[in-house]
Specification:
8-stranded mixed sheet; 25% helix; 4 helices; alpha+beta
């Protein structure tokens, strides 16, 4: 069945007045406060690169956050990367293309900002439609199963010759 994005969908950067509703969206989408608490910690640690909300009819129904991370080679300089986490849509607005719109807008903005690499841990049937793949991530050591650890090169070849261990912000607790 084709996805029908709501006509009144607006995607915009978050502002401080949105924080309470972003917390509620993440609580509802994930069935608990874990992701919402993560967002607050990432903000507090100053590692948020981009945070977008999706509104339908003036109500926030979705949220996506991108934060700074890196790939640390055995020797040499760490390679800057971006973590996509979390992505949340209120349960009654899921399967309407809102998450996809948030991802698309976020990736476009990251390209505009000159970012080269985005990493996500997510559903292997969902994220590949946006260009994420386990193949480029295979040279990166991570604590996650290889079928859910994916990367997207925003600049072709961004991972060429790069090997090392993924380093998430401290707020992830890894």
């Amino acid at each position: 069945m084709p996805v029908s994005v709501p006509d009144s969908l607006v995607i915009r950067p978050e502002n401080a007045a949105d924080h309470s509703m972003i917390h509620q969206v993440n609580d509802a989408a994930f069935g608990g406060a874990g992701e919402a608490d993560l967002i607050e910690s990432l903000r507090r640690d100053g590692v948020v690169l981009l945070s977008l909300v999706a509104e339908v009819g003036g109500r926030i129904v979705g949220h996506i956050l991108f934060s700074r991370m890196s790939v640390e080679p055995p020797s040499g300089t760490a390679v800057p990367a971006v973590a996509l986490a979390p992505l949340a849509v209120l349960p009654d607005h899921q399967r309407q293309g809102i998450g996809g719109q948030l991802i698309g807008r976020g990736l476009a903005e990251l390209r505009r900002l000159g970012e080269r690499l985005v990493i996500v841990v997510g559903h292997p049937d969902y994220y590949p439609r946006f260009g994420f793949s386990t193949a480029p991530a295979s040279s990166i050591d991570s604590p996650f199963p290889p079928d859910v650890f994916m990367a997207l090169e925003l600049v072709p070849g961004a991972l060429d010759g790069i090997q090392g261990r993924v380093r998430y912000p401290d707020a992830f607790g890894l």
